[in-house]
Amino acid sequence: MIDSFIIPELGSMAYDNADVSVLLSEGAHNVYAIVDPDDEIIEIDESNNQAMNSIGVYNQQDLAVYDWAIFVSNTEPVDGDTITIGASVFNIRENIAVNVRLRFYDGNPDSGGVQIGPDQVIDTILPGEFKTVFYDWHLWYIGGRYHYIHAVVDPDSEIVEIDESNNRASRRIKIIGLPDLTGKPERIWTGTLWNPEIPEDGDTTDVYAFVFNIGSWPIKNQDYADKRVDLYLYHNHPDSGGVLIAEKHNYLPYAGDSAYFFGSWNTSGCAGENKFYLIIDPDDSLGELKEDNNIIFTYLPVDSAPMPDLCIRPDSIEFIPEVPIVGDTVSIIAHIFNLQNRQAEDVVVRFFDEEPETGNLITEDTITVIPGLGSVTLIAQYPTLGKAGFHNIYILIDPEDSIPEKNEENNFAFCELNIRSPLYMSPKNLVADTINRDEVRITWQPPDSETIGYRLYRNGVLLNYPRNFAPQGTARASCSAPNYPPERAIDSDNYSYWLSDYDPQSPLWWSDSFSQVIPIHCITIYWYRVPHYFEVQAWKNGGWQTVDAESLTSGYHIITIHRFPDLIYTDRIRINMPDVSGYYCLGIYECYIYHFNLITDTTFVDTFLGRYNADCPP
């Protein structure tokens, strides 16, 4: 029985209606209506008290979602936030909907959209009603752009509906991006930018570190990255006495991009594994998605030094007295260094007056032991009787190459010794006149003896001593590799160098220019790699003129010396390499440009030391 009703009174020849609501299952149904089922009323005809009608019930359903019925708790959240999203599902037909599945997507599911969270299942939606589903969505590394949230009801078509076109809806939100800077242990290394290398104990090497922005801001070609970030690289942790190797205050890399920086590290005594720390934004001045990935560490190996490296430099040669007079005995003091952490034994050292191939041997000495990373000082006595003038004193280590070394190219150096003539060659009637606050004119008369020139001192400083003027110039080159600019060849550091581009174009050149014309008597080039042919050129008469050229076997760490007995007067020097085809790269450690400024007349104007600001005359 579906239901029963009592009609209180029914008049003669009248009728009344009885309505009932019933929920029928899918299929065919015979619905009976029976009046006076218990024969309580006496009638003249009982056969017409019952009627039947057949009803077919079909499961016609239609579920719908709408754009306006998608809910978002924050329409402009920040990457890293958790927001609540929701969608209302409507049952717009007459049948009950059960086990209705709803799925959220970030982006159109037909175009690679990513599902947000698990499927949401609604147990029952009555006809003509709706139910709303919510989900807490954690935003993670997806900021910096607009996103479309798609809600899809019955995504797998489990429910037969009369209209499937209204099962999807979407809404746009903007997720604000944040940066996230971090590093990678494998992207911290020693060597060069292009070629990681394991150094040996005692080497000086560069240490590189890369920083990556794995976050969602700034977006290239969209956002203006005006923020800077502090980057630091330490050998061992700074809280435990670590040594700062490099630091950089870099513009923030774009999302998905990286930046690198590097510093120099001397590995003396560091054989084995060495712990390095990359520390990003230590003051947390930059808001990031994650702050726990700003310290990256790795272990970098240093090999034990297999061989010593004996070295002498021009600045490690001294003379006592510094400017002797003919007849004095000069003490030549040589400081011999071992740049590797491996001792050297029975080291022969020879002292020469002028180049070893043509000069005179002054003395020879043998050092029993030079400890690793240590040094030994030798003193040689040099009598100067009859030797007035300029002398290049050469010191040669291990002249027979009997000691295997890591570097055989730094075993000699020379320094100029000026031996003064006797006092009877001094000038006569020496007078100093103040011209103005910038200049002093000194005049004298030559002595009766034969004198070709003089050197001038002021307050114990030799004014016209041969000096290297290269660092006072401006270095340029036809091309340079990144981080190896031309000025590194005039920075007075024999361990830094200018390097050309890889596979350079011909002609390749490096130059040094000055603000005024200077006289040049010698140019010394310490090559990183020398070509088979090059030209030394001076700017004269409006063009480059070759003043010396050299052909030799191409190689590394070669020193070439170019002397000019007739002084060259110019304001520009160029090293020209007309044909560099087939070379991977070429470069110069240091270029030295010397001039004597020897006084050969009776007037010398002191102008190149700068203004003298005392109240009294200079």
Describe this structure in words.
The chain has 618 residues and is mainly beta. The chain has 4 domains: 63-175, Immunoglobulins (Immunoglobulin-like), CATH 2.60.40.10; 181-302, Immunoglobulin-like (Sandwich), CATH 2.60.40; 310-419, Immunoglobulin-like; 467-595, Jelly Rolls. The chain has no helices and 40 strands. It has strands at 27-34, 50-57, 63-64, 70-72, 82-91, 97-106, 114-125, 130-138, 145-153, 168-175, 181-182, 188-191, 204-213, 228-235, 243-251, 258-266, 272-280, 295-302, 310-311, 317-320, 329-338, 344-353, 360-370, 375-383, 389-397, 412-419, 428-434, 440-445, 457-458, 461-462, 467-468, 474-477, 498-499, 508-530, 533-540, 543-551, 555-556, 559-577, 587-595, 603-605. The strands form 10 sheets. Strands 31, 32, 33, 34, 35, 36, 37, 38 and 39 form a 9-stranded antiparallel β-sheet that branches. Strand 20 and strand 21 form a beta hairpin. The termini are far apart.
